[in-house]
Amino acid sequence: MTAQKDPMSYRDIKSVVLDRLRAGIWGPDSLLPSESDLATEFSSTRTTVNRALRELAEEGFLERKRKAGTRVLTAPARRAQFAIPLVREEVGETGADYRYALVSRQIETAPAWLAARLSLPAGQDVVALTCMHYADNAPFQLEQRWIVPTAVPEVLDEPFDTLGPNEWLLKRVPFSNLEFSVMASKADEKLAEFLDAPVGDPIFTAERITWLEGTPITLARMYFAPGYRMTTRL
Amino acid sequence: MTAQKDPMSYRDIKSVVLDRLRAGIWGPDSLLPSESDLATEFSSTRTTVNRALRELAEEGFLERKRKAGTRVLTAPARRAQFAIPLVREEVGETGADYRYALVSRQIETAPAWLAARLSLPAGQDVVALTCMHYADNAPFQLEQRWIVPTAVPEVLDEPFDTLGPNEWLLKRVPFSNLEFSVMASKADEKLAEFLDAPVGDPIFTAERITWLEGTPITLARMYFAPGYRMTTRL
DNA sequence: TAGTGGTCTAGACCACCCG
DNA sequence: GGGTGGTCTAGACCACTAT
Description:
Chorismate lyase, 2 domains, six-stranded antiparallel β-sheet, DNA-binding
């Protein structure tokens, strides 16, 4: 019935397998045929079947173990994937005009919480920035950022008056490791003023810590204007 | 200098390429050698190089086009990947005891915003649930959920008094499409009471809409207790 | 139109790990 | 011990698209 004569691509195989999962032909926790068997059924090769199953496993549907075989996950371990775009691009995609503004820039001793968070030595100086990002001149995001000058010495000479720190840093340390978190925080007076929101309003917040080869570079907190949400479809 | 004699695995190649990106040997916006050339340099085959570069592109470092070649992205389009776990597992991983409780269950006409959101016909009945998830008996998450009975008729007979709707649904429609959003919302009196938070506190909120083959199944809003954050490392 | 990546084949060796 | 997936090879054809 479901036999296929012509060779199938790994995409075809993925979609057939997904269909069978949805239809319950291969129910939760059951074992799929081996790659070789599937290759035969699909008039394909093991390499092709392997790619299909590997991707389905990466996407959270299957679990694969040598010798044990390929098993259907009972609770598909779905993953939400969100892009971490540049603010400029994020604003640009909505068709709005992007504008950047520096609010403040100073050199200060790293506050204790920051030093602890980034494993900085006590008394370490950092460059502290506050910036605003606007979409069509409406507040879009307030950015608070601390940069460690021992990691990026040029930061001491950079005024950040026309280029945001994120884009500036990307030019110097484009391929870093990072930790990215999202949370909800509360608008204090400063946030309320800059984001044009009532004091006490919930503010969607992202925090990003960047390292290069184990050396902490920067911590950024991004506070979004009311109504912002991060969405993904899968 | 950097010549390799023994054949390298696709992992080795990935890490060498990443090193060169970090070192700026292949700077932003520059063109990498073709797959065949790299295969020669690495004493490997094009298939293996292809897998390495393909994965690096998926991870957001490179951009690949036929004929145009492989280009280094100026601003690496990093992606944050968050797991969407079952509450039970999320709580369990912290070592805490998980407990589920049904707060309310009723059948009601879909409110207008929900009907619009899920493209339901006017006057459609839905099952409306409110549930609590506890970690070591402390509030962890309040879940508000609406299920469309025309899509899952058995829902009308399910009391949901011992098993949460998410796990219940997973057994029936495990392989669905979904839209997942996160945002910040504000604790009203009900939320404050159940999550043991002050009224007006910012509440990290996730919303999940599920379809099966284009048919809307359910919408869920998950309100997390204060202090919750979603984190990922890359 | 020529060069690049996208994909498939047919075969091989190996690491892992269940029974 | 033996079967499974993980990976690599060497070669091929094709689709796309920059020039």
